[in-house]
Amino acid sequence: MNIVEEIFRNADRNAVSIISGGRQWTFGELEELTKHAASSLGAQGAQRMGLHCPNGISHIVWSLAVLRCGGVLVPVAPELSVFERDAQLAATGLDAVLCAEGGKWHQEAPASRALNVEGLAPATLLTGWRREPPPFDETALAALNPALIRFSSGTTGTRKGVVLSHQTLHDRVRASNSRLGFGPGDRIIWILPMAHHFAVSIVLYLLHGVTTVIENSHLGADVYAALSKHQGTALYASPFHYALLAACPEAKPVPELRQAVSTAAALPPETSAAFLARFGIPLRQALGIIECGLPLLNDAWATEKPTSVGRPQPGYSCSIRDAQGRELPTGGEGELFLRGPGFVDAYLSPWMTRAEILEDGWFRSGDMAQADEDGAITLCGRSSSVINVGGMKCFPEEVEAVLNAHPSVRESHVTGMPHPVFGGVPVAEIVPEGNAPKAAELSDWCRSRLSSYKRPLKFTFVESIQKTPSGKILRRP
Question: Distance between CA atoms of 45 and 115, rounded to whole angstroms?
């Protein structure tokens, strides 16, 4: 099956699909644009394609065009550094990179050609980089009918590249919408980065006949203006965005707004209270995981238990277990295990299939959680050391690898420091090699190699870093 064919098979061609920049496109017009874009790609559209493009109609059309051609879509987030882009290109063995809507690549490609599709800004297809076999089994990947390869953060860490097939995407967005209930007539105000949220969000909206209103500003006043102008029925954003929106002085309840879903980071109680007071509806916190979709949603206790991620959506199950894998009684804190439809098909590197990733059908989320007597699940932190920066995941190991490559750094330890706006920000302890480098020097070193949200805001020089008995860095949840 092909997810793009499924989207347009049952769509109302006259209904509005996308609103952006003062223009709107019906589902019929979106399908025609997608067909023309796919035609311009030709046979190259069936390859592994990196897409370097900001939010907008071009991002949606070119993504759908690659999928329609049978290609594998690899979003290249605009905020990635040159170092990170090169690493992603190598890790996925990309055949091509498509730069659109002003997206610029940092190096000249061996070959390129212009793509001109009426109704879209000019785009450029860059090809010819691959010289060595990719670091995974291409035959095994092709057998999955892959649609998407997504990186949660850069390309370091023990598992890289989440592979999702067309069937998995279809199963995931159907299941994820079980209690969201999005459908024709809904107008969702979109402000999250498409490079990170295309699979479980934009595809979900398109498949269910929703109108997506793209707002490229994060400012509360601009988001509120879009919400009011388009009579938005739903918001899907991070706590960072809701805090800005609730603080907007001119904001008042929007009669059409029926639900606001908070995801990507833990929802602070004060943000929940401020939004409820300003708009008169509660924030419904959800748990979204790239490997799993949207398995948990707080639709039952959004007002009285705003910090809970709620209960499993239909078709999903959860289990909270101790370190020995035993299920805990009500109130016990342990690791959250999940089971359900649309889960990850494979990790790209090292190559692991779904059967190898899941444990007897269960996915280990890495989140510590507990359930109360009603079954409401609350996250208590991470069993790993991931830092959540305004809804973006930062892996300390990735930042440490960059710091440790500096000639004046013997070793480093990166942790998260609480931040009133972003939730957390990375900070680093440094054991110098010889004379300690200046903090400004380390900042410049990170600036050329890491996305802005991954760069440590503070450097502390220490004589040693605490280790476990086996010699590994001691990381506390």
Answer: 12
Q: What integer pLDDT is reported at residue 473 of this predicted model?
A: 78
pTM, to two decimals: 0.85
Q: How many Cβ atoms are within 10 Å of 433's Cβ, its own excluded?
A: 14
Sorted by where each begins, the domain ranges of the chain are 3-169, 217-382, 387-461
Q: What CATH number labels 217-382?
A: 3.40.50.12780
The string of pLDDT tens digits covering residues 358-391 is 999 999 988 889 999 999 999 886 656 778 787 7
In angstroms, rounded to a whole number, what is the distance separating the alpha carbons of residues 234 and 266?
19
| CATH class belonging to 3-169 | alpha beta
Topology adopted by domain 387-461:
GMP Synthetase; Chain A, domain 3 (3.30.300)
Burial of 356 (0-12, 13-18, 19+ CB in 10 A): exposed
Question: Residue 200, SS3?
Answer: helix
Pairing relation of β-strands 283-289 and 293-297?
antiparallel
Would strands 187-190 and 234-237 be described as parallel, antiparallel, or unpaired?
parallel
* Residue of 340, 65, 346 whose CA lies nearest to 175: 340
What span, in angstroms and rounded, lies between the C-alpha atoms of 475 and 383? Answer: 9
In this predicted structure, the answer to whether residue 153 has a pLDDT above a threshold of 50 is no
Judged on CB neighbours under 10 Å (0-12, 13-18, 19+), 109 is: middle
Tens of pLDDT along 260-284? Answer: 999 887 888 899 999 999 999 999 9
Indicate the pairing of strand 160-165 with strand 346-349: antiparallel
Using CB atoms within 10 A of its CB, is residue 330 exposed (0-12), middle (13-18) or buried (19+)? exposed
Q: Choose the most confident range, by mean pLDDT, from 265-274, 336-345, 417-426.
A: 336-345
Residue 47 near residue 74 (C-beta atoms within 8 A): no
Contact between residue 194 and residue 60 where contact means Cβ atoms under 8 Å apart: yes
d(CA 86, CA 316): 37
Q: Output the furthest CA–CA distance in the chain (Å, rounded).
A: 68
459/442 Cα distance (integer angstroms): 8
Q: Which residue has the tokens 């009669």?
A: 255
SS3 content of the chain, % helix, strand, coil (to 5): 30, 30, 40
Q: Which tokens sit at 55?
A: 């939010």
Q: Fold match between 3-169 and 217-382?
A: yes
Q: What are the backbone dihedrals phi and psi of residue 225, each rounded to the nearest 5 degrees, phi first?
A: -60, -40
Q: What does the pLDDT look like over 87-137, one tens digit per residue?
A: 888 888 889 999 998 878 888 889 999 999 999 999 999 998 766 788 888
